[in-house]
Amino acid sequence: MIRIIILLIIIPFLLFSKETKPRHILLLHSYNQTMSWVEDITKAVHDVLKPQENNLIIHIENMDTKRIYTQEHLNQLKNTYKNKYQNIDLSLILSSDNNALEFLKKNRDDLFGNIPVVFSGINFFKDQDLYGYKNYTGITEEFDLLGTLRTAIKLKPYTKEVFIINDYLTTGIAWKKTMQEQLKYFDHDLEVSYSKDYSIEELKTKLASLPKNTIVILGVYFKD
Fold first, then answer.
1. Band of the pLDDT at 6, cuts 50, 70, 90?
2. Angle 36-49/2-10 helices, nearest 10 degrees?
3. Which candidate, 23, 13, 7, places its Cα nearest to that of 58?
4. What residues are paired with 214 via a beta bridge?
5. Nearest alpha-carbon partner for 162 in 187, 194, 203, 206
6. pTM for this structure?
7. Within 10 Å of residue 120's Cβ, how many Cβ atoms?
8. What's the CA gap between 177 and 108, in Å, rounded?
C-alpha cells in the first residue's frame, strides 16, 4: 500500500523529458535502517522510482532519532547536511516519520531551498501543521482506538479495565495524548490506566499482575 501511494504522489515529479544530467533525490528517515518499516520504505522508493532506469541518484540519510534526540544532535545533523549537500541540486525530498518532517519544516529552506517534500508515516497530523509551509504533501498514519476497544470488548465482554502501554519518547507521548482524546467518546464504563516510564522488566512485572478481566492495548514502546 505504501508503495502504491508513494507512486501516485511522486509520479508528477517524474514527468520530465529524458535528460543526460541525473536528478538527485534525498530520502530522509527519522530513524535507522534496523527498523523493518524503514527498510520497507527504502525498498519501496527504489522499486517505484527505479533510479537506474530514470537517471536518478537517491541519497539516504538516517537521523537515528530513536536512539538520540537532542537539540545538539539535530544541530550536528543540520551542519552535516549543509556541508554535504551545498553543491547538490536536489529535485525532491522524501521523508519518513514525524521527526524528519519536523526537521525539514525548520531547516529545509536554509539547507536545500524550496524543494518539494513528500512525507510518509506521519502520526497525529492536522491540516494546520502545514499552514505557512509550501511544497509539502504526503500521507499520514491513523489509528482507531475506539474501534479496537469495541471489538476487544465483544470478544471479552466481562472486561473491567484497560491498560495502555506507551513509552515516553516523542511518538509515545503523542500517542497517549491522542488516545486520551479518542477515549472521551468511549461509550463503556471501564477503568483506563497507562503504563508509567517503566523499564522492560518493570513492565513485565506489571503485566503479570494485571487481573484477568483487563484488556491490554499496545501503543508504541521502543525504548525503556
1. low
2. 40
3. 23
4. 161
5. 194
6. 0.72
7. 22
8. 28
